[in-house]
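Quick bug: Beta-galactosidase output formatted oddly.
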Amino acid sequence: MIRVPLHDGWTVGPKLGPFESAADGRGPVAVTLPHDALRDLPRSPDEPQGVHTGYTPGGVFEYARLLDVPGDWRSRTVVLEFEGVYRDAVVFVNGAFAAHQAGGYAGFSVVLDPFLEFGAVNRISVEARAHRDSRWYSGAGIYRPVHLVVADPVHIPLDGVRVETPDIDDERAVVAVATEVANTARHTVTTRVSWQVAAPDGTVVASAHSPVTVLPGERAVARARVTVEAPMRWDVETPDLYRVRSTLASADGALLDEDVTDFGIRSLQLDPRHGLRLNGRSIDLRGACVHHDNGMLGAATEPAAEDRRVRLLKRAGFTALRSAHNPMSRAMLAACDRHGMLVMDELTDAWTRPKAPFDATITFAEHWRDDIASLVAKDRNHPSVVMYSIGNEILELATPLGATWSRRLAEQVRELDPTRFVTNGINGIIANLDRMAEAREQMPDANTMMAGMGEQMGLMNASPLVSASIEESAAVLDVVGFNYADSRYRQDALDHPNRIIVGSETFPERIDVMWELVRELPHVIGDFTWTGWDYLGEAGIGRVDYTDEPGYTPTGTAGPYPYRLAGCGDLDITGLRRPISYYREIVYGLRRDPYIAVHRPQHHGRPTATTPWSWTDTVSSWSWDAASGAPVTVDVYADADEVELFVDDESMGAEPVGREKAFLARFETRYRPGRLVAVARRGGAEIGRHALVSAGPASLVARLEDAAVHHDGLAFVAVTLEDDDGVVVCDRDVPVTVEVAGAGVLAGIGSGRTDSEESFAGPVFTTFDGRLLAVVKPSGTGTVAVTASAPGYAPASLVFEVVPAAL
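Here's what came back:
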């Protein structure tokens, strides 16, 4: 099989009608896939999609590419594989309709054979549309990778290998491999399938082979059970991956096809006494919800960006990710496998009752089986995947017909993959909106409603009405996911002693409460915060407003234009850890030293308005453009009895931890440049300290994040305002121009600022708290030069080499 990326040579432009022309400048432009057609469109406060998409418009787009098809392909099978097109994709070959995929997140493939002109240049075009069909920023277009597959008529189809490890102990593991063989020829064919299993170090540790006869136009499955001695277990701390190579040979021994599949040897167990066990060990899921966009890259799914997100989230203390609210990309799944991150992969945000005017509910009843099949086929060999979520805050879930859908979806998942657990993100209030007509009328936006209900939400989620209404839908699940319903955890252990719960979505500022419940209650297996990584759309739901600002008007959770980012991630879109991330790390018990977070002195004493997804407006900095002696509030996060604060060895006093919030000591003090030190004590003895130092004269610095940049990857360049010791100046932001020369192009540029009007396309973007991130996409191998310049600073430059991709 020839399987190659088909990412170059494409153009994209608005889809024009037969009587329209591109004379007005709207013609197609050259792009490289993956590509987001929405990212660079002009935003407007009048955009009908509003806060949901970060005031970004929708549209209808046409991608096109010429494909040279050799004459000898006439005897082959030619397939175009799309990992995701948002949405309602229509594929044409030489102007002829070839395929339609309604869903924006389901992978699909198109057999091109009937439409190709062999020995000629063919035209491939793909239409995609996005308009008022999402509650967050979806992006649009061919935003995930595309591959061209040229195979023998007798071949291993895409996702045609399945690997399971049904029997494992310390002595050996049984590896069950099933390889599908497709025969598109006109005659019955007898072939031979061979398998080789390689250990993480590449050593072949098991092998098998079997003949398989396939009738014309049919498929057959060849199976083998092999034994791996002294198996290395895939785990969150030891993500060891094995590899099985399946080869398909003709009767005379000629190689017809091959497939390479990575897998892990690991076991899962689930019960209310031990919770979730991975390889026999109980594990509490330190979880983060994540959206699919890549910040300044828009919705484009670049494997290097997906890998970076997983690495940085793992480094911040998370051990599990929930894709929200759509199937995770293949690249992110592979990264989770490599880095030991567990996955809850989610099917959809809605079933049959819509949350947006033109969302996926329009076609769900017709395509749900195919969407589940696509999800499972993509996931089933990934050891990181432990749960499938069949939905999120489904509106009809608390009705008898909604329970019917719950059972239908759960059983379909189990039929295709009985080795993993099924869950659903249930919000009892959202599922009972019809019974709360008055509340819904007053607060029509679900986020605003939940934010405004406060303590009432917990009481309502635990009410007899909600309990009775969701009972059947919950009963079809292996793990009951609860969104914002920790008020149910204790009572459910009594009312439903066999029920296992996961906090599938929770408020970030309640992690101290949530984690205590997870650790205390064995039937609660983990907590997934909203969110781990900041994202585009649902703009401003995590912001902090200063209510004495002239013209301030309360807007609930909706951030007014020009808000673009949600503002609620533990990490911002550049990958920088925000203070909440360090607070969470201390709550998890992963950090011994305290952590200092300083409220911005220029806002001291001002009244604020927040949402349940907000944290404080703090920065870990002691370098401010504030007068010496100006009042300032300092928070110190610590797992300690008390914290003492020092400025240049002078004590500013001690405060107990937990007076205002668990793991928090708050100080009202005065700003004075110098060295700020927090000393944490337990039982009178020091257990850790954290220090901040005021910055000296600052320079503009550009720093390459990774030592090696491969031609199929990305280069992440951090641009900062910092002094000679690397201390960042956080409140003197400047516009920075980034220029790229040589074997690369600027793919995106941005900062953690949630309400910027600047374009992610660059080349100019303003720093936020002294930082921004530029992303460079290689255009080949060779030398790349990056130069950053800003008014009042000497330019910062760096040069690096793009090398061939690692094997």
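Actually, after a second look the formatting is fine. The CA atoms of residues 317 and 514 lie 16 Å apart. Closing.
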